Amino acid sequence: MEAHRQIAHRSRSLAVLNVVLDLLRRSLSYLPPVLPPASRPARPRPRFNRHELAGAFGDLGTTLPLLIGVLAASDLDPASVLVVFGLLQVASGLGYGLPMAVQPLKAFAALVISQHLPARVVLGGGLAIGGAMLLLTLTGLVDRLARLVPRPVVRGIQLGLALQLATLALKEYVPADGPAGYALAAVALGLTGALLGHRRWPAALVVVALGVAYGLLLRLDWPTAYRALAPRLPRWHVPTAADIAAGALLLALPQLPLSLANSVLATQRVALDYFPDRPLTVRRISLTYALMNLVSPFFGGFPVCHGSGGLVGHYTFGGRTGGSVVLAGGLFVGVGLFFSQGVAQLTRVFPLPVLGVLLLFEALTLAALLRDVAGTRAHLRVALLVGLLAAGLPYGYLVGLVVGTAAHYALGRGWAGRDE
Questions:
Q1: Full-model pTM
Q2: If 0-12 CB within 10 Å is exposed, 13-18 middle and 19+ buried, where does residue 298 land?
């Protein structure tokens, strides 16, 4: 009887896998190109120098705590999560040629950490959100959304993310080690402020070196670290239909508004700000978002997205090509393959106050993008409103997106005062 149940379970799993593979094949066959071949600019080759290496650490303050949190709260396999996450970073850096970082899905991570959801539901949710984003891409709905949402609303979404990152840095990371942590953060803050943009001594490299030296000298338990050193490979996993349904209800639905607002619209806006000669469409960003999440669950990877904060973090500390993202991905792959059982200790070794400083500068750079709507009072008001709603409310990004868009068009038509 047990053998029959196992055979039935495998048959259902293979059926799910075949459906996903067929969907991927069909979607890629008739998707229009992102740009016509004649107008498509050549993809820049990734560079691997000290500035790209510095940029590789620009997003660690966001990604590392989220990954460690979900690994501690669930039965996800650490090697699978870290290796797949790193490989997706490498693929993104090579595919875009820009510092298009990959980040864990934040709403997913918050729900997994707070509710201790099992791995099968998390991986099923990854397939669900990937399928939803693919549907939005193929139907053109994501393009219509991009045309509908005005720039002040996108800037407000970025401001909301900046407020959340700054709050996390100042309330959780900087005070983590008490007086010694405050002193370490002050030194890191001074070094970052003095060296930001320095050609010979990139700020992130110097600050990360400071944190590594602090951790190795004062925190690392060398015997425990040695015992945790062991090679591991990702595990194969096929989510069932029940897992996908549960993941869609518990995880994908709360994530979708944040993904549309920050992972697609805001990321495209930042990419255009930093790389105007390499125009990216929301369709391409949403397509790679979908494909990553339709592939990674089969290898045990945590669901991911692109994020405006990740792009800003890499750019702020020196990343100008996909090289910084490839280097960051290589770091995660290496840790996942050889040190996945000791990753919790690794995070305790590296001081949180240093991560907090990096995160704070990422937040400041995100907030500074508000400057291009500051010249019009009505646009600035809409952006500030959206930012406060996004940062302060449950489902704040969805509320900010809807309220901000409505307010912008109401102001433009004179329904709520004159657009100044």
A1: 0.83
A2: buried
